[in-house]
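Thread: "does anyone have the structure for this chain?"

Original post by V.I.:
We have the sequence but no experimental structure in hand. Need at least a predicted one for the grant figures.
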Amino acid sequence: MTCYDEETTTPSVTPSPRPESPVSGSASPVVDLFKPYYKSHRYLHRSEVGSDPDILDPCSCRTYSGGYTVTEQSSPVSDRWSSAVNLFVPQTRASDPDSVSGHHRKGIYSSPHDSSRPGPHPDTGTGTSTSSGGPFRDSHERTNEAIDVGIGGGGVDDVSSGAVYTTVRIAELPGLEIISGLLSHELQQQLVVDTVREYLPPKEHLTNLDVHYHVPRPFNIFDDDVELIHKIPAKPPLTMSEVRAKKLRWVTIGGQYNWTTKVYPSLTPGTDGFPFFPPRLANLLSSIFKIKCEAAIVNFYSPGDILSPHQDVAELAKADLVSVSLGCDCVFYVGKTRDSKPLPILLRSGDIIVMGGDSRFAYHGVGRVWPDTCPSFLTDFDPGFDRQLYRSWVANKRININVRQML
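Reply from O.Q.:
Generated one for you, tokens below.
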């Protein structure tokens, strides 16, 4: 039976049990310190985040005073990563004047202090800076040069394209990294387009809807002429509008994690239950992260959704877990144990969480997704399909692409 959070129908990836009571004679019971946090922040308005010293904002680390030791580092974007992006984003999108909001293009890299997003802007005053200054590469400089995308490249090359991104690390959570400014507007657009066009349609990529409904394949969430028929005849069908609004929760790509048994059904790539991972996405991520992309869960969050604290422990490999945020802002929690104080982190569209090393199996969850915080460059471009339906769908969605190595 799929385990759901007690307050929402969003399933946990690998739901963890409540902390066990200590054995008889021990000093005190184990206290779950995650629960008060993700409950209290559910009612926090987005405008209040900047004044909450307990929430780490990667774009304004100096305002954080919640108890964890935070360091940040600005790094040049490598030519290897730039070339990987050039191959991932089609040339047609690179030359589209509407592909980045604002009627003028800055090039393939944009500042993490994004003026196109709604809501309060990060602190850009004196102190620690995370802005990606320096020259930006323009579209006419893009190339299709071949790149080496071998696994485990060891991070970013020393050679830089001129843009800068920021990595935030936590001393008490070694192996955890929060990366901002690495994903350009165009790249984020393409990741959303690929989610709709490549990750959702195949019958091999199962969704939460497949358990109870006959899902038409190829699955097109913008085809309003189609309904999803329930597997129990007496149950009403789902309209595609309902699917887009709240009913579509997740899709699995690559290894098909089983939500009931909490295991992967196959460990042989290319077999039933382990379709090959999308090669373009694998090449992109493995060009910079130490991961062989074999499985991913793409979660679709709506305002009000939460994800219970859990560990991702089903994989045999201990390679880094890479999590990409697209769309609306959220507060993300991470901690070594359920009975330790979690670190709340504000995540924006384009932010990346890497959980590796001693933090690979850390507890983590999502406590709040804020409505009306999707940046305009994701809502106002032409995705190549119904623009009006797309805009109304993505405007209040958080799309999280959580990639892991299985073997």
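V.I.: this helps a lot. The first helix runs from residue 34 to 40.
O.Q.: and Confidence is low (pLDDT under 50) at residues 1-26, 97-161.
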